[in-house]
Each structure stands twice: as C-alpha cells, then as structure tokens.
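Q: For a teaching session next week I want to show students how multiple molecules come together into a single three-dimensional assembly. I've collected the sequence lines for a complex. Could you give me the predicted structure tokens for the whole thing so I can convert them for display?
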Amino acid sequence: MAASQTPIYAAPFDAIAADYDKVFTYSNIGQAQRLSVWRELKKAFPTGSRVLELGCGTGVDACFLAEQGLNVIACDSSKEMIRVAERRVRDSAAEKVKLRVLTAENISTLSDQGPFDGAVSNFGAPNCFEDLKQFAVDLSTLLKPKATVLLCLMGPFCMWEVVWYLSHRQLQKAFRRQRRAGVNGRLAPGAAIRMHYPGVLSLARTFAPEFRLVSWKGVGLFVPPSYVESWITRFPKFLQFAFRMDRLLDGCPGIRVLSDHILLKFQREDV
Ligand SMILES: C[S@@+](CC[C@H](N)C(=O)[O-])C[C@H]1O[C@@H](n2cnc3c(N)ncnc32)[C@H](O)[C@@H]1O
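A: Of course. Below is the structure for the complete assembly, covering every listed component.
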C-alpha cells in the first residue's frame, strides 16, 4: 500500500486484531495481569453458569471460562477480533463458546438469549463503550436477579504510567487518564477510539440502581502497563517480584487505585 493511503477500518480494533495476541495476550505483562483477573473469574461463576462477555477481543477469557465449565456468549464490535477468536475457539474445541460481532451499545438484541447468570468485560473494553449508563440499563435486562458482573477497566490514575511518561518527558500522556472529556486512543494509522477513564465512585454511581458495587481490586499495581514490556523483560526478577506484590496488595485501600486496571464486581439488584 502507498504511504499516503490510510486503511479504513469498520471498527478501530480491526487494525490491531492480527497482532493483539502477540503484543498483549502472550506478553509477560499481559499474562501476569490476566492471571489476576482469572482468579476472580474462577470465584465469581459456578460451573454450568451462562455468561455474557462484551468486548471479548480474541476470545482468551471466553475459552478460559468454557474450560471452567461455563457457557459463554462472547461479543465484540470488531469483526477481525472475532475472526481471531473463532480460530482460538476452534483450536481449543471450546464448544461452550458462541461468538458474535455485536457492540455493547446493541446488547438489547440478545434479549431472546437471556437471562444470563452473569457478565464479563475485560481489559479496557468498557473504557470504549459510548454510554456506560445506558449499557448498565440494557445489561440489567439480560441478567437474572443477583447476577454477578465483572468489569475490568483501565483505571483513572496509573502510577506506572505517570512515572514512565514523565521520565520520557511526555507530560500529556502522563496525565491523559485525568481528562474528563476522554482521550482519542490512536491504535494504528487510521484507527482511533474515544476512551474514558472513570473512577470507582463514578462507576458505582453510574451502575446504580440497577447494580450494586460489591468489591474491587487493582490489576497491574506493581506489574506495569503492557507498553513497558520490552523494558521490563530485561529485569525478570523484578517482574516476578511485582507479580507477587500485586497478589499481596491488589485489594489494599489507598494504593489499589494506582493500578493500570481496576476490576469491579457488581451484583444485579432487584429494581
Ligand atoms: C483492549 S481489547 C480487550 C479484549 C479482551 N477483552 C481481552 O481481555 O483481551 C478491547 C476490546 O473491546 C472491543 N470494543 C471496543 N468498543 C466496543 C464496543 N462499543 N462494543 C463491543 N466491543 C467493543 C474492541 O473491539 C476490543 O476487542
């Protein structure tokens, strides 16, 4: 393709779908952060549950949930992400996973598939949803009373990010998560997505009264964000240390909010 031609993508994440697993899923940091989320997924849903996943990406969590004996409908707005997920589902023979190209803004179209025992959205997908209040309302209609919802978003203040970008003299990036109006996240040439970084209190308010915040923890407190991968792999002992510290302190009030991601557990209320 000529340098002046910018590809046009139907969904922003189409641009990075082919490389997503290499860059994030299989990175040391990606694996360390995902293990922390999986610990909570395992506890949240008993075998046999029917779970809805939004922004499933390449289907890693959907296959993990299927391995735990759950039935999953996993959706993503990116056709290319779903294409990679289909390959993964085929290769892992995860018959319990059904994949759909569907935006979080259109989940009401799944009303004939419910009610679900729970829902999941991992690693920043909800940061991209257009209207979290509308999402909460729509989601509540698809779930059973007392259903559990686990949402993992990029947090409002990542200690690593501030230190990393300040040390690289990139002031704007260091504090981008604090911008109330959100940020245009550039994924690749011609592919950008509007992202918001709400805090825990704001999320609890947005999801009420349909949902009650039960608990939350940090994901990636000492373990850094994935863009630090090539630097951190020079210090494998530090990464192991960071991983252990995260296990110890990810629920610690006062510091958990400094994590790369925040993982919130909600319960559907009877409203
Ligand atoms: C950072 S990736 C996370 C993927 C996956 N959850 C994981 O854990 O690896 C964010 C995903 O959210 C999807 N996404 C973004 N906005 C969305 C929307 N409005 N509705 C559904 N999916 C969306 C993207 O296509 C992308 O696959």
